[in-house]
Amino acid sequence: MSQPPALDIENLRKEYNDVTALDGVSLTVPEGSFFGLLGPNGAGKTTFINILVGLVRKSGGTARVFGHDVEDDYRETRNAIGLAPQEFNVDRFFPIREVLEHKAGYHGVPASEAADRADEVLKQVGIYDKRDTRFDWLSGGMKRRFLLARALITDPDLLILDEPTAGVDVQLRRDLWELVTKLNDQGKTILLTTHYIEEAERLCDEVAILDSGQVRTVATPAELKDRGTDRIVVELRSPPTTLPDLLADDERVEAVDLDGHQLTVTARKGGLVAPQLVRELDREGIEIVDLEITRTSLEEIFVEMTSSDETGNAGDGDDAADSDDDTEDDDRSRHEQQVAPDGGQQ
Ligand SMILES: Nc1ncnc2c1ncn2[C@@H]1O[C@H](COP(=O)(O)OP(=O)(O)OP(=O)(O)O)[C@@H](O)[C@H]1O
């Protein structure tokens, strides 16, 4: 019998009064994967997570966690998930070790085991020596580590990290990356939301780009980068008076422009087009002085695929009645608007 995927989401919808936060999200996250959920502010990421953990009720569609329906099988679902949320929603009056023991107890771990388990996760995240400290007295970085410890206390199969490195310094970010990579290697499925594209690129096997409550695409970071257009800029020794017909039948090439000594080719997969370009220039007897390839960054692709609709209303103009039609496709992603330059950074 094949195992159900970690997440099996079909046409998930959420409306908060007149705001459509999720507009028919369908996603499958395989067991054991490190899956990224990327999107600008207001895209619906937190709503998505909150539905999984039972903090928000969906308006429509289905969501299953390892085969358990998030509403009908709430207990099983909740016990399978460890959530490190964005916000510091921690009991501030108890030493952190006790907070962990309470949490373990709440999930049915016997008291004798809970204490050992608490010590183990505190060691795992590197704050064991702070075990008798109250949450409020921890530094910002330690608070982030603690949230991770709390998510791990029940040894969940699915770990959800909602912007785990927001506002933390570079060293801690790297420490957290190392830790979550290890957890993933040990078999935990990880769902990560982040604004840091570098983080997604480094950690995730696959990412979904969510925008205005809709999935724009699901792909590996490498596949996404291949979709971007690269620029090959070639400096010529003595430019020809007319441009020969270069790369004429290469469908990856979007444009070839000559401006004085500088030849610019805009193409997908620039790294593969460049050698061909060099061969053709050589054949024409045109000497090259310099050549540079600028690859599109994942960040640019992300910006291209998402809009900056500050209202967060996912309607896109078709928010009429609750028709369950399922016609979205990737081409809707061709928004002209872009997120603000730093719109995704905090
Ligand atoms: N409780 C609520 N009541 C009304 N609207 C809400 C509520 N929670 C979220 N929204 C709206 O739903 C949309 C999606 O919000 P959500 O917090 O899920 O996005 P997000 O992708 O997590 O954003 P961020 O990256 O800023 O955390 C936004 O327009 C938001 O204003």
UniProtKB/TrEMBL annotation:
Keywords: ATP-binding, Nucleotide-binding, Transport. It comes from Halonotius terrestris. Signal peptide: none annotated. Residues 305-346 are annotated as: Disordered. Pfam families: ABC_tran, DrrA1-3_C. The keyword Cytoplasm does not apply. Residues 7-237 form the ABC transporter domain. InterPro entries: AAA+_ATPase, ABC_transporter-like_ATP-bd, ABC_transporter-like_CS, ABC_transporter_ATP-binding, DrrA1/2-like_C, P-loop_NTPase. Residues 316-330 have a biased composition (Acidic residues). The keyword ATP-binding applies. This is ABC transporter ATP-binding protein. It comes from the Archaea. GO terms for molecular function: ATP binding; ATP hydrolysis activity.
